[in-house]
What does this fold into?
Amino acid sequence: MTESELIERLRRLFPKIGDDAAVVGDQVITTDMLIEDVDFTRAVPMESVARKSLTSNLSDLAAMGARPSFAVVALGAPKWLDIIAFMSAMAEAAQKYSIEIVGGDLSRAEKLVVSIAAIGIAKRPLRRSGAKAGDRVYVSRPLGASSAGLQLLQSGWPRDLPYTQREFAESVIRRHIDPEPEVTLGIPLASIDAVNACIDISDGLSTDLHHLCDASGVGAEIERERLPVFPDLTAIGPAMGIDVRRAVLHGGEEYALLFTSSMRESELSERVGRPVYAIGKIVVERGVRIDGEQLPAGGFDHFA
Amino acid sequence: MTESELIERLRRLFPKIGDDAAVVGDQVITTDMLIEDVDFTRAVPMESVARKSLTSNLSDLAAMGARPSFAVVALGAPKWLDIIAFMSAMAEAAQKYSIEIVGGDLSRAEKLVVSIAAIGIAKRPLRRSGAKAGDRVYVSRPLGASSAGLQLLQSGWPRDLPYTQREFAESVIRRHIDPEPEVTLGIPLASIDAVNACIDISDGLSTDLHHLCDASGVGAEIERERLPVFPDLTAIGPAMGIDVRRAVLHGGEEYALLFTSSMRESELSERVGRPVYAIGKIVVERGVRIDGEQLPAGGFDHFA
It folds into this structure.
């Protein structure tokens, strides 16, 4: 059973499950669990894991256009973990994004597990299911860095690289271990009536675009040359063994927003006060295509 | 560092943490994580683990006098787990206690981890910190079964017991693996102005009474002979190797409520429509005493 099939069966048990976060009145609520050796390894600084566990929830709130409100944290802490340092890093991230950690649960565990539930407020929550044929498909920032950073972390990149390569490596690794959730973009997007659907790119552009299209009952056509690529990834990545196409199209944990709107790129960028990138359009015909070819979901599937 | 010391340091980082659940407006929110081989083993039916993961959260809501509203579930699922059966059991428990599971997160994991955040509504939340000298100390039901059940599970009790012993064993094991949260008691208690403080017995009577007294800046004196003991535990338990005093005073995961009120036992029982048990009184002098002797916190401490 793939994750999609499993989630389909779970959805029959819990009909409200579907978006990045659940909507209850004017609140949205989301939860994310990170597990050692599944979602991260001890090669990553634990302070980054602490921040990322909050970030992934904040990204879900951003995708719904919600303002962060409060969160609870359940921590399964192995003996080697400096709990105070870990939670201090999380507290700092919480302050940065104006979310208050109001409660928690602490247990011993063999492997580090951190599970957060976060609640936000949204008058008009953005959903995956609102995309309409004719909408433009947008991403909120250049893609590929998170996946490239993960690949370099896993391959144990050499430290004696030339300066530009080392700088590139450090910057993509930083993007992987300390991603920025699009908290300040989601809120203005939700206030624009012409923004119809939104999801965050956690499983990879291809997979999450499939999720959005499937939820909306539409298809999408995107153009390779319109995809914004992380600076220097095209120039430096291949020499370091990075498959740029794969990183951009299928790389997970980007925490960029993927959304659709009837508005033009220039108009929408002006409304939100920063660049956003139109990469294609929503069409009636189901499925996702890139330059006319089928683009299968190629991102991360826990249960594949 | 003990759990108490650690929590004290965490409290400085997160000042709102303290009660069984956090209070935000008229909402209360709690989270609990259960981890395989820490909180349960595979000897227990997984459907019970599913129910208990929800029950422990519902018990926290009950301790705050909150009406269950909604919950999110993060599940780290090992390959051997029947996820649909697990979540079906949880869905059934959710329906029983009128809480709606609105969202979740699913990952692969080596060991089963389930983390739930639950939200309830309370106009006047009950807190640990409200106990006043002169209050009576109450427990909501007879104690000792959960701990006795755990002990029998761990010792692998013989199946060829005489009928009464087998029936006793099965009943205490059931109380351990499928505890009932006091959802229908917490709500009426919160509506009674003369109920001043409440906590659920998750770490054991002694430990949780210390928690309540410490939060309230008071002490407690309880009487051994007033403690309600689970039926047949005194008569049958010792022959099966159960330390009854230990099970009653220090046994965790009871999910009974421990609360204080200026009202008399008969009066309070009548108000809530069921028996509640006065076991002693709140006094000015700090610490917890039983029949005049110090009663140290002897329950479960993850970090001892």
Notes: Chain B has two domains: 20-121, 128-294. Residues 128-294 of chain B form a domain with the Phosphoribosyl-aminoimidazole Synthetase; Chain A, domain 2 fold (CATH 3.90.650.10). The first strand of chain B starts at residue 22 and ends at 24. Chain B touches chain A through 51 residues (CB under 8 Å).
